Amino acid sequence: MPLWLQAGGWGLFAGAALVVGAAIGWFARVPQRAIAAVMAFGSGVLISALSFELMDEAYRRGGFAATAAGFLGGSIVYTAANKLLSMKGAKHRKRSGDKHPAPDEASGGAIALGALLDGIPESIVIGLSLLGGGVVSLVAVAAIFLSNVPEGLSSAAGMKKVGRSAAYVFGIWSAIAVASGLAALAGYTLFDGASSGVISATTSTAAGAILSMLVDTMIPEAFESAHDYAGLIAVTGFLAAFALSKLAG
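RE: above sequence
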């Protein structure tokens, strides 16, 4: 199978976890604390992946300067875009409770763009990982998949609670899953043949955006309902991804 097709397939697979999570959040009555616990676990998994997979790989390829510039740049771009979307009503797009923006408080476009903003950096990383030798980073795919399930779950539960329709909820997450596949494909095709410095900066840019997304959206949801144990659960997720990274290596 061509590598570009593999990149798209792995991106679609990881993105499909959003639909899986949305289905759980829509059809099952998941306790608020359970949702928060899964969000905390997913946050720990992603933090571990960006630490030991993304940043380490970016540093190995391009050194500290390119890695640092990309990391800070990714955070700045994400923060600015997220701030703009928050002003349009998409601030609490991942909340599972009453804080999720109601239909009369936010446009569907703002929430969809917010979901896209959250998911694209992760997917690009999947495509970039294939450039290192034709083998996808299974740790990165697993980490993104595991973090996408609670993201879709939490957001779908919140959307349902404020009156969004099933067509709206599953339409958004299905579209984001497809966009994730396309972003992973772009991550491979656009940077195939690029210099190590460019790949390093792009990888660390995605890492900076992912970390900013975690702190701005997923961790607040996790802490709000599971604050007594959120740190411990996040550490468990971090350790699980760390162990997977070492076993895969």
